[in-house]
Design a protein that fits this description.
Helix content is 80%, strand content 0%. By secondary structure, it is an all-alpha fold. It has one domain. It contains 5 helices and no strands.
């Protein structure tokens, strides 16, 4: 989380790589990069939306799940 937070707040990837002790920047970006974080947030958001949609309207939830 520390590295993800650093990247999200604008720290240069090279700085976070050095702080984490990674040999190259690819490890830092692949594991802690912004796209990875955004994918997780999107997945959780879709799940929460589906749950609340299911509670409010079961018919609409069935349409959205397909």
């Amino acid at each position: 989380m520390h590295c993800s937070l650093m990247l999200r707040t604008g720290a240069r990837p090279e700085v976070t790589r050095d702080n984490m002790g990674h040999a190259n920047i690819d490890v830092t970006q692949n594991v802690y990069g912004r796209s990875w974080w955004e994918e997780r947030v999107e997945a959780v958001t879709r799940t929460i939306d589906a749950v609340f949609c299911q509670l409010e309207s079961p018919d609409l939830a069935a349409v959205l799940s397909n």
